[in-house]
Write a structure and sequence with these properties.
Elements (H helix, E strand, L loop, with lengths): L1 E2 L33 E6 L2 H12 L9 E5 L5 H9 L9 E3 L10 H15 L6 E6 L3 E2 L1 H8 L9 E3 L1 E4 L2 E4 L5 E4 H7 L6 H6 L5 H4 L9 H13 L4 E2 L30 E2 L4 H11 L1
Parallel strand pairs: 1-4, 2-3, 2-5, 3-4, 7-11
Antiparallel strand pairs: 5-10, 6-12, 7-10, 8-9
Helix pairs in contact: 3-8
Length: 283
């Protein structure tokens, strides 16, 4: 496990649900077209043992580099219990960011801190940084194909275009991608993420109406980037913030997703059953 703090990285190895154990299926291919891409999975304590594990047993198996960010881990007894039943993948590549930022209304703080961590430790290792929710389904090879069109050393902010009070932003649920060029522009010592942690890029009037959600993380990131480097997001077909529950009358299960003109990169609001069903279709 990786701990976030001023002292840097401290690494500890832990091997600690009703899941389909796909790990027993033998060798799994890894999408090496994403060798220079880091998937940042954001989850919270209550979902860590379930939703994170679901991803690691489906599309997460094909990702070369996946790092989980959580406010704080579940109690040790819960982890040990799952470990005894072989119901949790080891906890390597997990970063705790602080229990006080584990709720949805402060997700924006968690995500900002995760970007500060990435800029401090991994900015020279990866070319692309993708944020993923714990109920997102990712098609790795379609993501790799989409990223080939862009230069990672340039400033890029990619995803599904949304709008809030005339502020364009990339849907957090659909997942979005930052280039190394953007991360370097926003890293400490430059125009920076930590400034947005202490100084809101917008006033209270802008956030009025969003109180239920705190400050929506995806909107907040867009305002932060816009304020400091004046860069707007770029929309890519294939990132979907909608649910995958739609059923096409001509196709069974999720076969209809393959027939889309724009290849599927992500879907959001994916349930446990859908995660496995879609996995059998795309992998």
């Amino acid at each position: 496990m990786l701990l976030f703090g001023s002292s840097g990285i401290v690494k500890r190895t832990d091997n600690n649900r009703h899941f389909r154990d796909l790990r027993k299926n033998g060798s799994v291919w890894v999408d090496h077209d994403l060798d220079k891409t880091l998937i940042s999975l954001h989850t919270h304590q209550r979902a860590f043992l379930d939703k994170r594990e679901r991803i690691l047993r489906t599309w997460g198996r094909h990702v070369p580099h996946l790092l989980t960010f959580v406010g704080s881990l579940p109690p040790a007894k819960e982890i040990e219990k799952k470990g005894q039943k072989n119901e949790i993948t080891n906890l390597d590549q997990t970063v705790e960011l602080g229990a006080n930022i584990d709720g949805y209304t402060v997700l924006w703080k968690k995500v900002l801190k995760s970007y500060m961590f990435l800029c401090e430790h991994l900015i020279d290792t990866y070319e692309w940084f993708m944020r993923a929710d714990d109920d997102l389904f990712l098609v790795t090879y379609n993501l790799a194909n989409a990223l080939r069109e862009f230069d990672p050393e340039q400033v890029h902010y990619l995803g599904q275009r949304m709008s809030y009070k005339e502020q364009e932003y990339a849907s957090g649920g659909a997942g979005y991608v930052f280039s190394r060029g953007l991360m370097k522009a926003m890293q400490p010592g430059n125009t920076r993420w930590e400034n947005c942690l202490s100084v809101d890029p917008k006033d209270d009037k802008f956030w009025k109406g969003a109180e239920r959600y705190g400050k929506p993380e995806d909107v907040y990131m867009a305002t932060c980037i816009d304020k400091h480097i004046g860069h707007k997001m770029q929309s890519i077909s294939g990132f979907q913030g909608m649910s995958a529950s739609y059923r096409h009358p001509q196709y069974s299960e999720f076969e209809w997703l393959k027939q889309r003109e724009s290849p599927v990169i992500t879907f959001h609001y994916v349930t446990r059953e859908q995660m496995y069903q879609m996995y059998t279709q795309f992998y």
